[in-house]
Amino acid sequence: MTFSRALMRVSLAAAVAAGTLTLAVPLDAATLHRGNGAEPETLDPQKSTGVPEAHIARDTFEGLVAEAADGKLIPGVAERWDIAEDGTTYTFHLRRNAKWSNGDPVTAQDFVYSYRRILDPKTASKYAFMLWPLKNGEAVNKGQVADLAQIGATAKDEHTLVLTLERPTPYLIGSLAHKSAYPVSRKAIEAHGDRWTRPGNFVGNGAYVLREWTPQSHIKLVKSPTYHGAAGVKIDEVMFYPTEDIAAEYKRYRAGELDMTNEIPPDQIEAARAATPAETKISPYFGTYYFAFNVTAAPFKDNVKLRQALSLAIDREMLTERVTRAGEVPAYSWVPPGTANYQNVYAPAKDMKQAERDALAKKLFAESGAPKGLEVEFLYNTHDLHRRIAIAVASIWDEKLGVKIKLVNKEWKVYLDDSSEKKFQMRRAGWIGDYNDANTFVELLKSDIGKQNPAGWANAKYDELMRKATAMTNLAERAKVMSEAERIMLEEAPIAPIYYYVKKSMVKPHVKGWVANVMDVHPTRWLSIEK
């Protein structure tokens, strides 16, 4: 860094700190600087589980199906596809100019390899269930069929991929835009093993390719000249900055160091709306914030009344009005309102006043057999908003039920591991839909879904209904069956929905092409910077 550039940084930072300046142009206008939440657990799209990883994967990979700037589904590597009349065979015609970042062509066989890899039990992908609709996909993933070649994905020729399904799957095209369905480079994986996602080893097929990865500092991507749509990609470099400190991220944005934030601190939302309304982006987001009770161990195992009592006592209206403060809607269901192919159902508490909920909570707690002064650990990943919510709810439970909460915060990777292994009593969590269909929510509570089941919950009737729904082709009847399943889950309360998300982020006015959408997808390929 030159002396003049360093001096400029100091002077500008001082001005911002004094409240006299908000920069409109980043220090390096040739590069897009994006805040990105937690440090990624991995850049392997078949092994990652979080939203921060998905942001990066959308830039570095492309599936058969992709997303437009507004989140709508568009052709990706597949330029078109045909669907058989019975809905069980999909034929994808791949672009002949689709290439990996090393220059190799992306072929139908690459997708066959990738789908076999994610479904292979040895890969231990937590998102393998996304490919269960493929013929023998679930059976292979569960170890019931050993031959990977039995999976319903075949290469008719280099540019024609045929997917055969167990049964018609109305959400299949949407699910193929998910990172779990991205192709991965067999050549890179066989050459470098688990280190194939490191700079120098990385091979992707997206608009950008990995250049640098300094943990807890930044991930640098550069435009890939081999991408089939490279001519339309306007930004040359992207810097993703991991931070779980949203206040620090917001300060970096105000100082001109970031073009986009991942979030906005709750206590800054009103000020941001007033001072920079055009830059303050708040819109509906397809997800539910919730608490999960570990039902595989005490004190929540076999104690529905205790779980119900704690859920009822939570004042969701107070939390959204005073803590989150961005227009979040209190949640009394798991599946968000407005979800495609669904008939929403709600817990009875939705129609109660909070005083009524509190009275019922006290009654259920007394009947639960839980001791007075019950102590419970509450796990959350390090994040200011999660901390504020946890503190507020801990106070509520102490005041109303006498339950003492020990707050435990852990960094993202450890939190994910503990959540998967059920090393918690109670935890905060969030689920963002992977495609616009209720199945992306209700299937998560199936007993055989694996470690993704947020609470370790199992209910035979729920599983039976989900099996029935999976086999149905009549969408209206399917919706009724899934609604019945959700009603059972809400009654047993393995999780406590808290609110439906809204997405909160800041975007500089010189960033063009950013379009709000419920899936919150903003691939850099659609963005540009205009000074």
Number of separate strands: 18
Mean pLDDT, all residues? 94
- With strands numbered from the N-terminus, the spatial order across the biggest sheet is 12-16-11-15-13-14
CATH topology name of the largest domain, in short, is D-Maltodextrin-Binding Protein, domain 2
Output the CATH class name of the largest domain: Alpha Beta
Structural class: alpha+beta
Global outline: globular
The major β-sheet equals:
6 strands, mixed
Number of domains: 2
Quote the distance from N terminus to C terminus: 22 Å
User: What's the name of the CATH homologous superfamily of the largest domain?
Assistant: Periplasmic binding protein-like II
Give Rg in angstroms: 24 Å
Q: Return the CATH architecture of the largest domain.
A: 3-Layer(aba) Sandwich
Protein topology:
Layout: H1 3-17, E1 31-35, H2 51-60, E2 65-67, E3 73-75, E4 78-83, E5 89-94, H3 108-119, H4 137-141, E6 153-157, E7 160-164, H5 172-175, H6 186-192, E8 208-214, E9 218-223, E10 237-241, H7 246-254, H8 269-275, E11 280-293, H9 304-313, H10 316-324, E12 329-330, H11 354-368, E13 375-381, H12 384-401, E14 404-410, H13 412-420, E15 426-432, H14 439-442, H15 460-470, H16 475-492, E16 495-506, E17 511-512, E18 528-529
Parallel strand pairs: 1-10, 13-14, 13-15
Antiparallel strand pairs: 2-3, 4-5, 5-7, 6-7, 8-9, 9-10, 11-15, 11-16, 12-16, 17-18
